[in-house]
């Protein structure tokens, strides 16, 4: 199937073609015709499947057909809500790209930056508004935005918005919208909570589900290295240096851990930057740009800050600390091994994290191969310490500056030599990061740990679609 067969206008098809895409992805093939029919939609799709184009393309198509009737100041006719400011920025870039040959205006608004420029642009008139819930309510409170003419509402990554505690903000936004509108709900999962939200929001919706939940790509080579937590940073530095890794995404559980690990890697002579919710928008954008351009080799991130990272052909992902939520492991490693390319996902696991590893393997329904590294064998006398609110006991969350110790023998292959063979089989250029915050911190306080973290789209286009050579 081609984009030509989906009922999109010539102007949009031209813009899509210029992005280098020829064939729609499964989510686009199923979602676009439904949206063009004006039906409500409940779609389950992971990031990286092309879901953004699945709703932006038909949305723009519909707005462009009715554009002539609006004279003077443009009312907001399409509202796209997202959980994070960087995801909002990424969607905004997609909208700009696909509306290149249309006369529609779009605007992205989120917290962490001055509200005044956003207010000025809204006064000039906007057709498509991409927003985080908190900033949208700030603007509405100041009478800077009129939502009474919204025709299409999109809730993107609805599961994450609920996990991050946005449900009350979402309800407040819904109360400002006209009752008659088209609703599109996109979520990585169809949890009971999402189904409950959908039952109140959607009217006779079409349902689309194209991605299997809680699976890891066969293109990803996974492995576990058991190591004492005070030696994790030493081992990581050795693997990066001897493997000559030029681009590696490293996950920690805490903001402090991300900062501390990045500092230690830089002291080891490995260029690294950290991104998390306490970093300013500009700092995160610069860090991601440096990472993509090769200015830094290592990007250290928390789960929320890495939300929706847009990195092409990322070769290495390292779980410096395992996530508390097993599903987050799948989404972490899903940032590598995309678009037919292979990737490597390595987990550095200390004694405190054995239960987390068992939970992950229970979710995967298989054991992740173990690799024993000479010189890094765990001390059997060390007892496990509890992990509370993402922090380990002494020494966790980034190594706490543990001194370097003597490593094991090194192989010429660029990685510490294994004393045991691998077990068979295992299985808008913006850093998509922290949740929106009107103060500091990793987004709004969540009512519970997040249960799903989707990977970001591969690039500013319908990711996963076939590209022209």
UniProtKB/TrEMBL annotation:
Lyase keyword on record: no
Keyword Calcium recorded: no
Helicase ATP-binding domain residues: 32-208
Record's keyword terms, sorted: ATP-binding, Cytoplasm, Helicase, Hydrolase, Nucleotide-binding, Ribosome biogenesis
GO terms for cellular component: cytosol
Coiled coil: none
Compartment list: Cytoplasm
Family recorded in the similarity comment: Belongs to the DEAD box helicase family. RhlE subfamily.
Segments for region (Disordered): 381-469
Name recorded for this polypeptide: ATP-dependent RNA helicase RhlE
MF terms (GO), sorted A to Z: ATP binding; ATP hydrolysis activity; nucleic acid binding; RNA helicase activity
All residue ranges annotated as the Helicase C-terminal domain in the record: 219-379
